[in-house]
């Protein structure tokens, strides 16, 4: 592995799971991918001669021999175009490098029982969870929520797993009462894992809190899919450079394109590694890491997802 | 090291003590002071195969004391088997450790260690310890010990396994036989801040907050290292709380005259690795002991150690247990310090040792 460019790979197969969902199998060009812990995500770099995207996706599976990884991508709207590019142009042979792999959503291994609740594409980390839980004989259950038109797609994705532990729910109509019931039925030792859109996760957390779950037993991965926004300028105090952040690129990407060695890791507002001091201007915080005080103070920004409310932002870079 | 290098066959890390260092071993010692003063800092750097001294340049360092140290470790484990404890939820981390250790040892020392893999069927050869083991990766029943213990017995230094949950690290396993006065039995199951609680000053300096935040983001394939230090009377690896009654009183017998032979600079090369299957963190503590008389053979180090010990913060001196004999060590080293300027960094700045 090259510490800067990561693992070189190409798409070896594409599977149309549903109209908006694609499953990609990536083959390592040289050697093997490292072993993966369940809940890991990778940062995947891909693109064309005009543009390179670096997007985070959960790793659904790594083959036993380590030669391939699988991801599932939804064409997201609104979007900076990364997932849309993969959706349209992700054909066998396309180069996709895996820049880094890390885990912000690990299984709580001391737990006696694991209850997973997901919606839509939020299923992806739990696919790797279930592979391991099945192998290690852990006690678990998965409740998945999907739009009616994608029910059959998710049922197909879930078909290799133990069906007695899985329930797929269509829509949210009956879900409200069923979720409280199922949460109340769980033994007090259960750990709860949630993954899905923000509003869904908030609903599950709220319902869990009402059912008496302590926050230490409720786990979620709050990735932000970096969205675009208004164009703004960034002044870099140390280098004296001024760069422009376009509507469909992130601040981090603009910094990287300008050749600035900006820190980063998750690229989804979840880890805090890309924190940079703000000297002037008003940040538009879109991450899940900064505390309320840090947000209000306005002296720091996470470049991977956040933008600017003022036309110009001056950073300590 | 290669198979042609002779490992020492004689040596004793308990009374009657015997530890001899070759000139090469002295010059590769990971001297821990890049400057003439010492205070806690976030002195973490990438653990790459480069460094100012040779002992930093391998994933896991093996030196001339390898065989005798492994024998001492086996002896401690037979007297006190609970020096090795791994909690049940750390099984994946045990196999991660096997993979990391066997891969890197066989790559760094092809003359000493050999690994061949055929799918899950692995074959491990450790020539210095005469071990030839076929096993199935992932099947603990095919090894003579549990996987972590099997491997940690074949390596110098201590190892702990940290589980990551709730944005914290938990010491949920390890093998600890060459420690500077701490106990795995006591710390097992503790969180990062709990096991660091006895350390003075660093908490208020914010070092543990930053350290924990950094380690939670540690990535596979990008290990980090730092040097830590204390002092030990006699070349004793096992300065454990369990055996305090054996070694504690040694600190009272140091004099200006015997300090050069009794007082050892004890350096820990601490390395941290993210383990890929388990998402756990391996913490490796490789211990090096060098008596003041050997440090005095390196011009720069003897001057610098004098200044560091002379000016050490009293709280650190007390925490490291140096108060009973620090003055004697400073007295011995003061004869070498002629007030000259020393170069930055830990390099010995000399290629050979001139014996006086």
From TrEMBL, chain A:
Keywords: 2Fe-2S, Flavoprotein, FMN, Iron, Iron-sulfur, Metal-binding, Methyltransferase, Oxidoreductase, Transferase. Its cofactor is FMN. PROSITE patterns: 2FE2S_FER_1, 2FE2S_FER_2. GO terms for molecular function: 2 iron, 2 sulfur cluster binding; metal ion binding; methyltransferase activity; oxidoreductase activity. It comes from the Bacteria. GO terms for biological process: methylation. Residues 232-317 form the 2Fe-2S ferredoxin-type domain. It holds the Pfam family Fer2. PANTHER family: PROTEIN YIIM (PTHR30212:SF2). This is Vanillate O-demethylase. It comes from Komagataeibacter diospyri. The gene is vanB.
From TrEMBL, chain B:
InterPro entries: HODM_asu-like. Pfam families: HODM_asu-like (PF11927). This is DUF3445 domain-containing protein. It comes from Komagataeibacter diospyri.
């Amino acid at each position: 592995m090259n510490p800067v460019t990561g693992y070189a790979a190409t798409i070896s197969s594409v599977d149309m799971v549903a109209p908006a969902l694609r499953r990609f199998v990536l083959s390592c060009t040289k050697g093997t991918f490292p072993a993966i812990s369940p809940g890991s995500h990778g940062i995947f770099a891909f693109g064309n001669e005009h543009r390179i995207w670096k997007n985070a996706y959960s790793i659904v599976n790594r083959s036993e021999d380590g030669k391939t990884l699988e991801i599932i991508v939804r064409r997201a709207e609104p979007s900076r175009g990364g997932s849309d590019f993969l959706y349209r142009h992700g054909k066998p042979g396309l180069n996709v490098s895996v820049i880094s792999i890390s885990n912000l959503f690990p299984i709580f291994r001391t737990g006696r029982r694991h209850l997973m609740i997901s919606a839509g594409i939020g299923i992806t980390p739990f696919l790797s969870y279930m592979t391991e839980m099945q192998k290690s004989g852990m006690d678990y259950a998965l409740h998945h929520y999907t739009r009616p038109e994608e029910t059959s797609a998710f049922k197909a994705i879930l078909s290799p797993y133990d069906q007695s532990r899985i329930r797929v729910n269509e829509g949210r109509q009956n879900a409200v009462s069923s979720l409280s019931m199922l949460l109340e039925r769980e033994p007090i030792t259960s750990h709860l894992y949630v993954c899905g859109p923000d509003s869904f996760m908030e609903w599950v957390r709220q319902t869990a809190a009402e059912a008496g779950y302590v926050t230490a037993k409720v786990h979620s991965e709050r990735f932000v899919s970096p969205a675009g926004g208004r164009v703004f300028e960034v002044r870099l105090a140390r280098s004296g450079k001024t760069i422009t952040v376009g509507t469909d690129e992130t601040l981090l990407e603009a910094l990287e394109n300008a050749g600035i060695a900006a820190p980063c890791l998750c690229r989804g507002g979840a880890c805090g590694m890309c924190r940079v001091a703000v000297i002037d201007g008003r940040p538009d915080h879109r991450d899940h890491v900064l505390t309320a005080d840090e947000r209000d103070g306005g002296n720091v920004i996470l470049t991977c997802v956040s933008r600017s409310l003022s036309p110009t932002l001056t950073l300590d870079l | 090291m290669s198979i042609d290098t002779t490992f020492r066959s004689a040596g004793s890390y308990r009374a009657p003590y015997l530890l001899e260092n070759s000139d090469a071993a002295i010059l590769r010692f990971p001297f821990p002071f890049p400057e003439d003063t010492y205070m806690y800092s976030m002195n973490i750097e990438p653990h790459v195969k480069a460094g100012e001294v040779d002992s930093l340049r391998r994933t896991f360092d093996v030196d001339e004391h390898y065989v005798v140290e492994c024998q001492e470790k086996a002896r401690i484990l037979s007297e006190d088997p609970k020096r090795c404890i791994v909690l049940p939820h750390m099984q994946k981390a045990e196999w991660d450790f096997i993979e990391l250790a066997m891969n890197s040892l066989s790559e760094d020392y092809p003359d000493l260690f050999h690994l061949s893999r055929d799918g899950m069927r692995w074959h491990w050869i450790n020539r210095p310890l005469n071990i030839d083991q076929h096993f199935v990766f992932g099947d603990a029943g095919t090894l003579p010990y549990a996987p972590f213990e099997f491997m940690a017995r074949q390596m110098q230094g201590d190892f702990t396994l940290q589980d990551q949950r709730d944005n914290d690290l938990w010491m949920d396993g390890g093998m600890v036989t060459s420690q500077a006065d701490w106990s795995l039995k006591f710390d097992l199951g503790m969180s990062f801040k709990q096991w660091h609680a006895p350390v003075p000053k660093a908490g208020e300096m914010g070092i543990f907050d930053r350290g924990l935040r950094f380690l939670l983001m540690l990535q596979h394939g990008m290990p980090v290292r730092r040097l830590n230090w204390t002092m030990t009377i006699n070349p004793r690896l096992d300065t454990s709380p369990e055996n305090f009654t054996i070694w504690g009183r040694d600190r009272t017998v140091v004099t200006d005259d015997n300090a050069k032979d009794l007082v050892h600079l004890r350096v820990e090369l601490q390395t941290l690795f993210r383990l890929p299957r388990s998402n756990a963190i391996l913490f490796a503590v490789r211990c090096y002991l060098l008596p003041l008389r050997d440090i005095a053979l390196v011009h720069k180090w003897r001057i610098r150690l004098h200044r560091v010990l002379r000016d050490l913060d009293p709280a650190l001196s007390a925490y490291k247990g140096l108060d009973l004999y620090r003055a004697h060590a400073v007295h011995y080293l003061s004869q070498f310090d002629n007030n000259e300027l020393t170069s930055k960094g830990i390099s010995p700045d000399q290629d050979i040792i001139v014996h006086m």
